[in-house]
Recover the amino acids of this structure.
């Protein structure tokens, strides 16, 4: 078989490998996918993002729900009770909004309030008021939660003394006048200096 | 109506215009995908994907090259992405035939003629040649198949493969030389 025939055979086989036609409904398939594609893109851009945010929010809500339930559990009851108080003033209902905890003995146990924090007075008042609400017998669970509150930190005041700074001498900074520099007279070196017999350069050679 | 006019209409949301572009260039796109993938089913998928990608990127077509060249570039990249899929690569792997079997095939080919044996031998040689082409390096194989498909100019092939025309021509020539050497190595002594 000659090279020419073999080349023809190679070309023929190569052409055969790329021979073929797409399916008869190729155009219809592409158009059908085009029709689907924009909807998917719209869905992806306008729906996926809010849905994703909603899912994240729901997960966050599910995680935070136990903690939120404890705090809010007393709140609505409190407000409803206050409403009842407003609608029926004759009933001797204790004012739970201003109930404060009686001073507890400094046992040092977990959850005990040992000393009021004067640094955050307003917050402390709120906290005590909240704890007072938790002490309500009708809210036993809230009281149990209040008992689990971390103990107040008893931070002794830091004794910082003022640093004494000695007064600096206020005398004028007088710089004595320096002596004037007198010019140094330099004389030219003689050019006919004898070289040493060893042939080594003398120190004078470097100066030349 | 020219491709550019159809592109302008397709950009304005006319699906019929894009359908006309699909009809015009489906063969070129399909054959490019077939050259890259070697499978009709994969080529069909890749060609459809190429048209979808082209439709989404119509705004990026600036008209620097012809729409066909631009489309073929997209189709080729789409097909190459398909080819990189491990499963397809694995399916395309063909176990080489035994040397003895090949030699017997080539002996029959040497005596090929109009006889039924000769026809059978020619068919066997074609099959072996097909395997040899598939076992070429991708660069040589792609250039050879695209050039011999008759669908593309060297300019278009160069754009698709991102290589100068001279390089494409060299690759085609080199592919032929390698194929001849492969046959010679397998016992077909008539090949120089």
């Amino acid at each position: 078989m000659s090279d020419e025939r073999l080349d023809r055979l190679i070309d023929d086989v190569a052409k055969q490998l790329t021979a073929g036609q797409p399916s008869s409904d190729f155009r219809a398939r592409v158009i059908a996918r085009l029709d689907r594609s924009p909807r998917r893109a719209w869905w992806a851009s306008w729906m996926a993002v809010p849905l994703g945010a909603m899912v994240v929010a729901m997960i966050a809500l599910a995680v935070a729900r136990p903690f939120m339930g404890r705090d809010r559990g007393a709140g609505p009851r409190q407000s409803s009770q206050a409403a009842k108080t407003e609608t029926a003033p004759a009933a001797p209902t204790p004012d739970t909004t201003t109930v404060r905890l009686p001073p507890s003995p400094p046992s040092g146990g977990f959850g005990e309030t040992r000393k009021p924090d004067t640094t955050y007075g307003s917050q402390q008042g709120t906290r005590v008021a909240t704890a007072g609400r938790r002490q309500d017998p009708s809210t036993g669970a809230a009281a149990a939660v209040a008992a689990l509150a971390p103990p107040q930190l008893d931070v002794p005041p830091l004794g910082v003394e003022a640093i004494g700074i000695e007064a600096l001498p206020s005398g004028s900074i007088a710089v004595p006048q320096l002596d004037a520099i007198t010019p140094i007279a330099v004389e030219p070196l003689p050019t006919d200096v004898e070289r040493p017999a060893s042939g080594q350069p003398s120190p004078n050679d470097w100066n030349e | 109506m020219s491709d550019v006019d159809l592109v302008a209409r397709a950009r304005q949301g006319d699906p019929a215009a894009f359908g006309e572009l699909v009809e015009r260039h489906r063969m070129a796109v399909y054959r490019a995908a077939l050259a890259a993938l070697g499978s009709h089913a994969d080529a069909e998928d890749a060609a459809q994907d190429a048209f979808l990608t082209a439709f989404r990127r119509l705004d990026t077509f600036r008209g620097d090259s012809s729409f066909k060249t631009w489309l073929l570039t997209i189709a080729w990249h789409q097909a190459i992405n398909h080819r990189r899929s491990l499963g397809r690569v694995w399916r395309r792997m063909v176990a080489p035939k035994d040397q003895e079997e090949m030699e017997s095939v080539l002996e029959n080919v040497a005596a090929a003629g109009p006889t039924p044996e000769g026809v059978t031998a020619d068919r066997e040689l074609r099959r072996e040649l097909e395997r040899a082409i598939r076992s070429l390096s991708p660069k040589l194989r792609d250039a050879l198949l695209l050039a011999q498909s008759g669908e593309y100019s060297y300019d278009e092939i160069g754009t698709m493969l991102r290589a100068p025309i001279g390089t494409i021509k060299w690759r085609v020539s080199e592919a032929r030389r390698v194929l001849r050497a492969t046959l010679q190595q397998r016992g077909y002594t008539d090949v120089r």
In short: Residues 3-91 of chain B form a domain with the Rna Polymerase Sigma Factor; Chain: A fold (CATH 1.10.1740.10). Residues 15-37 of chain B form the longest helix (23 residues). DSSP finds ten helices and no strands in chain B.
